[in-house]
């Protein structure tokens, strides 16, 4: 990786390091756990708990976005419950009601980065956590992305954008900077489609 890009990335990661983390004494309004009794056709019964996100299954779109200059767009954001406290990953977000995965990916890419894709294709899908969720995530590849505006982040969303070459993006993956399975899988899905 180019020295100046490494320094830029390290500075952005450093700015999101956690100073303190304090539990709140309030109920969650976003996450909900619903217990179920399950009975199979063979007569076996057991209990399971389902995780809902904002009363939905939490399906999401994860987008490997390539600019018209052949650079990959990454988002750097606080991931406070990880060991690092900061995540480097691809733009992503939940699929809203009445949206398909491409609409969700386009909306989230624009909101998180200010970029609009020229082309968008679905690469594959995978469950987020089959043990407690029905969330089906979609990996997408967006090409010919152009900057059309500023970020439009939610109130508690804090994102820095990082751009690098395709080769540098896969170097970040190999060096362990990208720890999120959603981003890792999407990058692996995208690899055969990219000219490097």
Description:
The strands form two sheets. Strands 3, 4, 5, 6, 7, 8, 9 and 10 form an eight-stranded mixed beta sheet that branches. This protein has a two-stranded antiparallel ribbon with strand order 1-2. The chain is built from four helices and ten strands. It has a single domain, classed as Nucleoside Triphosphate Pyrophosphohydrolase. With 196 residues, the protein is an alpha+beta fold. The protein starts with a helix and ends in a 6-residue tail after the last helix. 23% of the residues lie in helices and 37% in strands. The mean pLDDT is 95.
Provide the descriptors you would attach to this structure in a database record.
single chain, 196 residues, alpha+beta, Nucleoside Triphosphate Pyrophosphohydrolase, eight-stranded mixed beta sheet, two-stranded antiparallel sheet, 4 helices, 37% strand, globular
CATH architecture descriptor: Alpha-Beta Complex
State the name of the first-level CATH class. Answer: Alpha Beta
- Unreliable stretches (pLDDT < 50, length at least 5) are none
Spatial gap, N to C terminus = 14 Å
Helix content: 10-25%
Total number of beta strands: 10
Task: Bin the strand percentage.
Answer: 35-45%
CATH superfamily: Nucleoside Triphosphate Pyrophosphohydrolase
H/I helix tally: 4
Give the CATH topology: Nucleoside Triphosphate Pyrophosphohydrolase
The averaged pLDDT comes out at 95
